[in-house]
Amino acid sequence: MIKKTFRVGEGIVGSVAKQGKAILLQDAEKDRRYVICVHGTKSQMTMPLKAGSEVLGVILLGSYEVEKFKNKDIILLNNIAGEIGLAINNVWLTRKLKEEKESVVILYETAKQLAESIDLDDVAEIGVKRCQLSYNRC
């Protein structure tokens, strides 16, 4: 049976996801954790994809040749995975900053309107409208 998805801890891919550490196998079929993804795979590099210390996924490269990958290949894959993780983290941070900016703008506009109003009914209406706006954003 060929598997396409793995639970954390299942197979080599799941082990890498759980432990957050790369695995280089020169003959994957000899590893007790090996689960067939592609028939005939021999050498396999499996690398966690991380943003900070959080594992987001796993990169898997395989070959039909035994002893295809060398230590320099796993180092290169580690560097590539690190760059991908940084890019994902940057996208996440950019989204968070955008959300925070939107919240600050709403807060600023509300404070400005409240400061300009001296009527208690106007203040209450501004507060209710801003609460509805904030609620609808969630």
From TrEMBL:
<protein>
    <submittedName>
        <fullName>Diguanylate cyclase</fullName>
    </submittedName>
</protein>
<dbReference type="Pfam" id="PF13185">
    <property type="entry name" value="GAF_2"/>
</dbReference>
<dbReference type="InterPro" id="IPR003018">
    <property type="entry name" value="GAF"/>
</dbReference>
<feature type="domain" description="GAF">
    <location>
        <begin position="7"/>
        <end position="88"/>
    </location>
</feature>
<dbReference type="InterPro" id="IPR029016">
    <property type="entry name" value="GAF-like_dom_sf"/>
</dbReference>
